[in-house]
Amino acid sequence: MLPAILGGWTVAIVAFGVVSTVSLTIQHREQELALLRSIAATPRQIRQNVVLETVIVALPAVVAGLLPGVALGAVVLGRLVDGGLVGASTRLSAGWLCVAVGAGTSLAAAVAAALISSRRAASIPPVRALGEASPSATRLLSRARAVGGLGLLAVGLSLAAGTLFMENGPLLSSTAGPAGVAVAVGLALLSPLAVTPVGWFAHARLGATARLAARNTRVRARHSAGVASPLILLVGIAAGTLYMQSTEDGAHRGPAVAGDVGAQLAPVNYLIVTMIIGFSAIVVVNTLVAATRRRRREFGLLRLSAATRGQVLAMVTVEAAVTAGIAVVLGTVAAAATTVPYSLVKTGSPIASGPAWMYLAIVGGAFLLVMLATVPTTVGALRTRPIDALSAA
């Protein structure tokens, strides 16, 4: 059961990351795709093109991940043996069937994510090829995204409410954990609505750089939400799972009891959340680097409009901080869907047990991750001469 849970979370995170990355790519290729539509390419052909491009990129990535995946499986098995959940005589078996299923599942997740994103690509009108792609020219939320986000929020809140009526036992986390994940994904889908109010600060008495960053974040709400989405998932899952486990630990303080399921599962839960954080961090970095690199033309235009490199870098830094702040707030709300009902049943208090530094570390790590992925990429993009950046776009 445990490998299925860990594998399921991994596939879900990978699929979510592919959707975010492909969606951002489509946003930056609107003119190109509209041009294909204007020369008689059908929506079906556009969808096929997006899916095939994703498969071409995903295939070598899946092959490259096979050997590290087997090595990671050995590490996980070792931790399970150390925790007493698996017999010491158990050995890792990496047969061709397991490898094929793992590779096939990963590729299927990428294809499914590409199919979801390709719907937007196929809906781009041909007339878009005649002008500049405008981030504000499209709807903030598609109907499917709004319905999906609200549906997942309803599922997550229902699971959180159901947790309140469960008995205090090992199965309590079976509803509390998924509740936070469902709310996190739902909030990520609806995040453009949370990004838009940032534009209100564009009229505040802030510096020119901060005003421009706030206006950019508002106008490019879909883009900013695409960057924030994997970060919401990271903060929500990390904070929810870690504080759920720390609450469990706090409720069972004292000498270890033989056969205590909670004590046995503790190291496994920490292992799971560590791996989820690692996979989520990779998705966040890839998304941020890809999104920043595609803004070279915008940076070049700002430089030609008399903006200095320092001003452009400051603008991007403020945008990154705002995006990270939005993700932290929404991720914290998602984590509360896990920790509040779990803590109420375990301790009678809505406040989860655990040190404050753990939450501060998650928040600080989220901001650090965003800055490390954004600032160096921006510095590299600014090394290109403005006129070259315009012609290379």
TrEMBL record:
Keyword Mitochondrion carried by entry: no
TM region(s), chain numbering: 6-26, 50-74, 94-116, 146-166, 178-202, 223-244, 270-291, 312-336, 356-375
Membrane-related topology note: Multi-pass membrane protein
Localization in the cell: Cell membrane
Source taxon at top rank: Bacteria
Start and end residues of each ABC3 transporter permease C-terminal domain: 9-126, 271-378
Pfam families membership: FtsX
UniProt keyword annotations, A-Z: Cell membrane, Membrane, Transmembrane, Transmembrane helix
GO CC terms, sorted: plasma membrane
Molecular function terms from GO: transmembrane transporter activity
Signal peptide: none
InterPro entries: ABC3_permease_C (IPR003838), Macrolide_Exporter_MacB (IPR050250)
Family stated for the protein in its record: Belongs to the ABC-4 integral membrane protein family.
Name of the protein in question: ABC3 transporter permease C-terminal domain-containing protein
UniProt source species: Streptosporangium minutum
